[in-house]
Amino acid sequence: MQELDPELEAFRQKWREEVSARAQESSKSKSSAADPSKSKGGGKPLARSRLPTSHTTKFVEAHDDGIESQTFGGSDEPDPSGSNYVEPLSSGEGESVPESALGYYERAVERENQGSLGDSLNLYRKAFRMDDRVDQKYKNKHFPKSSFVSKPGNRNPSNAAATVPNTAHHSLHGPPQSIKQLISGFFGLSIEPMPPPIEGAPAPPCPMAGLPSEIITHIMLEVAVLDIGSFVRLAQVCKRMAYVVLTEEQIWRRVCMGSEFGFGAMHYEWQQEVLGGPLDDYPPDIKDLDNDEVALAPAARLNKEEATELLHSAYESSWQQMFRLRPRIRFNGCYISTVNYPRPGQASVSQVTWHSPVHIVTYYRYLRFFRDGTVISLLTTDEPADVVHCLTKDFQDTHRGGGSSYLPSAVMQHSLRGRWRLSSAKDTPDIDLKESEGGLFIETEGVSPKYMYRMDLSLRSSGRVARQNKLVWRGFWSYNVLTDDSGEFTLRNEKPFFFSRVKSYGNGA
């Protein structure tokens, strides 16, 4: 133990010297802090000196996160002549005070990168007080959009398919291509057969790959005539078929002018009487024709000259756009209008209640169109699942007069026979040909033989994808055949009709 005494005495002596040095420094700092208060009554104020050591600066930086000065009725800058003024801290002797909000913001970012969160927070506050959009200015100055230039990639990677052309859509530069430009890049591509399921095994056969383009076009034309939906879905098979579907105008011309799905089945003049009989007042040019020939008469169909005029003036010479945008009636389904309205009920007479019930009444209107110019109209409370399969002429004839009311199709005993036609330039010769189209006129029998109903509807689109699938009311009248009087129904509760496809109808009767 005695050997350790010299070392212990040396340590104690060194510790006493350090304590005495610190005591002297603290006494000097206290005396210098008390001097300004003594000179409060008069005399020159003592010159302010910077804090001597960096230890105090670090201490303040680490504990001033919650300190925020308040200013009332003046500027944000403190008054140097005040007694509570404290000179801003600076990391270096030559650092100046920022003069703009952007300068404060840049100084705050610099302090934040150095780890001085307290100083950076105060500087951020000052910057946003001076300009609330200073962060955007900082971003535009130090990170402009022009500095982010994307690197061009490999336009033709080694693992690209053989059908991928060397076009500009592989580049990241320039504006994106439109659908028309992208499809035009598929020109000249062939149908690539499917790769073998196992490496080394023979590839499965692809008969379409070896056919010439004329045969492929003819096959796809037959598909379009049978089912236009299946024809359009062929575009999802490969790029070659997508190019044919979207650019082959002769197929779309056949679809537009045909009677399967196009305007060859549209009627722009009355074809039959309201009850389904032949017309008594035929036009002179078709008066001597048979009934089957009357259905195909030029006076009852869209004139090809009008179709050509509309094609170039309204649809940019595109048969595909004409088929998609031009108003037409669909025969592979029916149009349904669902109406809901509240009706006040009656309170119970046997119980004391403080409220009256409210009934929600729901009914449906159905319209099914036929290619011969006739239509079936039905108003009922039965839901569509129980009605749409019964909207046929056979069920209508079966239940006419209330017969066979025990069958599930008995709802058809309230159905009404009628006829339909689309509006044309003959109805409104003063306006443009495109604007004159889109109207739909329906005439049906009434609840008694002396009445007849007339509906005036308009073909509309219900969204960006679905086109011409909505019938909007424009008017509804009742006509007395005996007295030649007419009255208009109110359309307060009526709702538009929406098309619903029914698979059992096929392509329509």
Question: Key terms for this structure?
Answer:
509 residues, alpha+beta, eight-stranded antiparallel barrel, elongated
Description:
The longest helix is centred in the N-terminal third of the chain and has 34 residues, at 5-38. This protein is an alpha+beta fold. The chain has 15 helices and nine strands. It is 31% helix and 15% strand. The protein has an eight-stranded antiparallel barrel with strand order 1-2-3-4-5-6-7-9. Among the domains are: 96-144; 172-194 and 204-247, no CATH class; 267-301 and 327-345 and 357-505, no CATH class. The radius of gyration is 44 Å and the shape is elongated. Keywords: Ubl conjugation pathway. Residues 147-169 have a biased composition (Polar residues). InterPro entries: F-box-like_dom_sf, F-box_dom, Hrt3/FBXO9_C. This is F-box domain-containing protein.
